[in-house]
Amino acid sequence: MRINNKKKIIVTHSGSFHADDVFACAALSILEKGKVKIIRTRDEKIIKTGNYVVDVGGIYDPAKNRFDHHQREGAGKRPAPSGSSRAGSREVEGENGIPYASFGLVWKKFGEEICGSKEVALTIDKKLVQPTDAGDSGVLISKNLIEDVSDYDISNVFDTFLPTWKEGERDEKNVDEQFLKVVDLAKKILEREIIREQAKRESDVLVQKTYEESEDKRLIILKRYLPWKRVLAEYLEPLYVISPREEDKWQAEAVIIAGEKFKRRKYFPESWAGLRDEELANVTGVKDALFCHKDLFICVAKSYEGAIKLAKLALESKS
Q1: Which parts of the sequence are annotated with region: Disordered (predicted)?
Q2: Which of 71, 125, 168, 245 has a Cα-to-Cα distance from 207 of 20 to 30 A?
């Protein structure tokens, strides 16, 4: 990450704003440690003064920090994932179909530097950058399953800051003030995404080590809570994970099937469904058993030993 006492000038377009130019400015502000001045204009003379120019100017030249995608030829599309040439229902030769918008162009050059990790930058590109670019480029990446009901995404959030006709919709000063507020919000979102993904990467190493050291790889015991689903989904053996819960309780959770959101590899016995306290203790023989979810994917006990007993009983169960 660079440090410069002089403010760098970021130029973007005036008028209505969208998620891609908001996030592009936010990313550059993070890159420059907040030492930036944002100018919103379409005046070519002012545009030429920018250290960074995003979403305006008609030029994509990363060497000169010019990041527009509105020129006739666009600014390119992302490569297809390895071994795939499909994007949605369309065949796309060597591309995944999502064009680069200003956020993606900035992230393509500076994402790794901003995150301090190529892996973290790539993950955030898939999670946040590509959907933002797709929305700005009119590329659908999901479908509504319920008529007249749509997801409320980050673009909807940013749109709420645009002044209404009663608040001075065409008042440039008013719109610019709202834009800066939204850039601050986008910075917080992007910084939190980076922090969370960095933490996940650290936890991946710890979970991997725990898996490798486990004698019975069907039952993975984490002495402290760690996000484990991403790592353990890669292995076929794990069925249950023991981890601490709030208020000194412990839980046993069934491992999700790889590629699924909710389906588990092996559920807890059907006779435990929805039972609590004494009822669950009587059925299982585990004196400090507290709760089994009605959908049979998680059990809770007062003690570490109790959670392990519940998991071992479930391993032996045929249900």
Answers
A1: 69-93
A2: 125
